[in-house]
């Protein structure tokens, strides 16, 4: 056999690959959740705190949220104290618990605003607006789909 000429290069030998076990979907989902947690831990902590408070408050949080968004929902649904039916109390509890998801959405928007160079004041206003609009949307959805008789 002739030795290779100096102009011809042979590719370097590939190192032996260790067997890598494919990552499961659950592991990938947990890794994605960990990345999201690291980006906005305060919003996640708020959401994880408010969700049980919506249940433990026995509907008081949902009732307070109704009065907070009253300028938007009062003309359509009327006074919360005059509602009748078996769905009133579960609706107030559900809104109080589901409202916690607004903190995650507001945190995501806050991170987007931070990346785009928004001022802290603008980001705080956007955070508050997401929470308020989230409460209004939840009340419209829950009141429209629950077994409630409006007076």
Walk me through this protein's architecture:
The chain crosses the membrane at residues 44-68, 88-109, 125-144. Residues 1-20 are annotated as: Disordered. Keywords: Membrane, Transmembrane, Transmembrane helix. With 151 residues, this protein is mostly helical. The chain has a domain at 41-145. The protein is 66% helix and 0% strand. The protein is built from 7 helices and no strands. The chain has helices spanning 25-39, 41-56, 60-68, 70-77, 88-98, 101-115, 120-145. The radius of gyration is 26 Å and the shape is elongated. It starts with 24 loop residues before the first helix and ends in a 6-residue tail after the last helix.
Short descriptors:
0% strand; transmembrane helix; 151 residues; mainly alpha; transmembrane; membrane; 66% helix
Q: How would you sum up this structure in a few lines?
A:
This protein has 151 residues and is mainly alpha-helical.
SSE order and pairing:
Elements: H1 25-39, H2 41-56, H3 60-68, H4 70-77, H5 88-98, H6 101-115, H7 120-145
What Rg do the Cα atoms give? Answer: 26 Å
Helix fraction, binned, reads 55-70%
Reading the helices and strands in chain order gives HHHHHHH
Main β-sheet, in a few words? none
Supply the helix-strand structural class: mainly alpha
Number of β-strand runs: 0
Transmembrane segments: 44-68, 88-109, 125-144
Keywords: Membrane, Transmembrane, Transmembrane helix
Region (Disordered): 1-20
């Amino acid at each position: 056999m002739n030795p290779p000429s100096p102009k011809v290069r042979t590719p370097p030998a590939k190192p032996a690959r260790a067997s890598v076990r494919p990552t499961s979907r659950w592991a990938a989902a947990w890794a994605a959740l960990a990345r999201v947690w690291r980006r906005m831990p305060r919003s996640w902590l708020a959401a994880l705190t408010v969700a049980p408070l919506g249940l433990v408050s026995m509907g008081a949080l949902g009732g307070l949220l109704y009065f907070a968004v009253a300028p938007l929902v009062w003309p359509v649904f009327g006074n919360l104290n005059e509602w009748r039916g078996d769905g009133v109390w579960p609706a107030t509890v559900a809104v109080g618990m589901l409202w916690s998801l607004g903190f995650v959405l507001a945190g995501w928007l806050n991170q987007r605003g931070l990346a785009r160079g928004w001022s802290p004041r603008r980001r705080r206003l956007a955070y508050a607006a997401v929470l308020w609009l989230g409460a209004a949307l939840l009340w419209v959805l829950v009141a429209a789909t629950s077994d409630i008789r409006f007076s």
